[in-house]
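Help! Submission page says 'invalid entity' but I think these are all valid:
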Amino acid sequence: MSELGNIEPRTPNVERRSAVAVLAWIKNFFDYLGASREEPPPGASFLASPLWLGIWWGVLIGLILLFCGQTSKFIYIDF
Amino acid sequence: MKKRLFIPVAIALVILVAYNVLIAFAAKKTQRQHLLNALNHLPPSTDCLFLGNSLIEAGCDAGAFESSWSQPSSTPTAVNLGLGATTPVEHYLILKRAFEQPVHIKYVIYGFFDDQLNAAPDGAWEDLIGNRAFSYYFPKEAATFYTPNSRLGEWRLEMTERVPMLAERSSLWDRVELLRRQLDEIGMPKQKVNRFGRVGDFDALEAKDVPSFVQRCGAIVKVRKGFSPPIQAMIDLAHEHGAKFFFVEMPMSPRHRETFYSLPVWTEMRAHLQKLAQAQQATYITASDWVRDGANFEDTVHLNEQGARSFSAQLGMALSRMTVEKTNRLVAARDY
């Protein structure tokens, strides 16, 4: 019995394995968003829904339009 | 399958429409929209207009101009319609709108610098941002200068004008640029800014160096190039409405005058411009050295408030003297 009572202390290996799993999930999540993976990662099936896709495309188009002016010469700024 | 494609496309379109609405709202607060609003509500007593880019916007103080008029009974009511970062095409559109209002304008005072009066109008996609989006408000008229005799060019401006995220695209880019500048300055010394932008950026408005200035002005003088089409159109418009047109060589900082205006090519250029103005029954006023102290400028080209007051008072005195002299000459000729 440890000082923590019934809670089993985690070994470094278990922590590493779960961290790797989380990182792999995040990687798969972004891979799917970036269209380099066919299937969404487990637990993120909402990413495949048409509703989410529409929002995602709209937000992306909006962000592109918002930030695509950086090559313009902004001498005057309309404060 | 159709549903899977249709729903996302429809949602993306809804977001785009929302983006357009957001831009349309953001654009309502811009200087060009404020100016358009001011144009539509010009005081009926207005009889004198200041017209031009930020040199006029910053440099003309209507109050100081009016109070320095030598004959109080004939003091004009002046309105400053200067708009920063614009070209003669936008100035023509502003003037045309002003003449459509129920006012009787007697004097149009147009401020300029360097080769602004002869430069060809440029209205490419990348040029019409910021206050130059004013051109999109009147696409047909603007197209006659940018793409003369081209139905396609006119159509392009008309179509762009209907979509806020295209016509007013820079309304939100300004905000992004300000954010970018704030991020740039983290941990760095703050850059000096004034009401128009970063002070250092305005060096870019001057010619790159003396050879390029000589080359630009020399080419105009050599071929005896006339006024650019929008400048000519402004003069014609003023004369059609019985207004007198004044060209004012705007006050320049000591550095600009010493570097560029002391060159022989500028003396030739000025003589050429004066001849052109005379041929068009317009008056040319050389005011580039009226404000000699560099402390009266807020950057390389713009007058500060104190400089604007001093310049406008001198301009008011000069114009009132000219009109009195002309009236006296007319009276003398009639009596004779």
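Support: the input was valid. A stray whitespace character was the problem, and the output above is from the cleaned input. The longest helix of chain A spans residues 12-33.
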